[in-house]
Design goal:
- By secondary structure, the protein is mainly β.
- The protein contains one helix and 29 strands.
- It has a five-stranded mixed beta sheet. It has a five-stranded antiparallel beta sheet with strand order 14-16-22-20-21, with no helix packed on it. Strands 19-18-17-23-24 form a five-stranded antiparallel beta sheet, with no helix packed on it.
- The model has no long low-confidence stretch (mean pLDDT 93).
Amino acid sequence: GFENIVGIDSFYEGEGLVNFYSGDIIVANTTKLDEDYWNFSITVPFTNGIQDWRIELIPLDGSGVTIDANFTRQFFSDAVSPRVIEMDVYTYDHRVPSSTQTIQVQITDQPVLPSNVEAMVWREWINDYDFNGLPSPDEYQSFSDVLLPNDMTAFVGQYTILLDDSGGSIGDKVAVYLTGNDAAGHPLENNGTGEEGEHLFMYQPKADGPPSIPTAAFSWEGGRQTVLHPMISYEFDVMMNEPNGGSDLMVVEVQLASQQNSDRLPISWDFITGDCTTTSPHLVIDDCEMIGQNGPAGPYEEDITLNVEFHLLWTIPDLGDTKREPKLIVQDRAGNTDQQAFPTLRWKSSGDMYIPDETIQLVIEQGTAVADGARVAPGSTFEVSGDVLF
């Protein structure tokens, strides 16, 4: 309807004004179009809620407009990424083999949950192309059979993965991570990756078995220690067996003084962190490591040994001739427990020190040595040395 307009041009430059509103605020405008298009970019506000965006056309030459000169659309500004918050399987776990293995994962997001979640699955007996017993990024296969929650508008939804692990051998492994994004394009978080050790979860098709402690599981480095002294570094090994691997152990505790109610000098190992901790104020852990047959123990190694280096502090109570008895306690996730005390390895602490007479030496630079010492001039220097022993 504009005079002298050729083609699809809407209006001459300066004869119309187009405003773009976010709510009631103008965030962009123009008086020039590219034929009948206006292309521009804005940043979605970093909020979480409804946004009203409106296009308004205003004539600047006295012309009129139709009701279509105002165009409103409603959007939801989504600042929240979907993320995995819980699952009914541990990062390293075991399950009884099944053709319909069910894994449930809880994902949170708003205003709607992601609907394109896929499971990337690695099964050792099918996908371990390099035969190293561990998943590689290119060995995972997409597995879209993920059951979605019934209510996609809920804050938290339960996603169900159905797997068939009946074709594997006992002890083979299955690893899974998830992919997907929500409607706003935010990728799923806390979902794992295909890189080594970064899976969402891994499990063995294997029945649960109780942990056990072999005979003579406790040994001191350098032989039996009958007396321990403050600030001296000591080292010991404790052996244990767990059919489902060390990752299944919820409790690994060495009590160096198991019969003392006041302070059992406990040392606890945690699989997730790989560290040892103690609640005793009289004990300092210098180093600890769970060891397998070829170095640091893997999550599914059955025969494992905890190596601990520690030292006692001067504050440790002196019990005289009363001896302390080591003990090892292990418990798996199912609550199966084994414990063993080592009465033949009882020890006592002593902070007593002495200086043997025969180690005392007197060294003079000037003067004369005599039977009971030396004769030296005032201002001269001399040295006295001797061994300090527990």
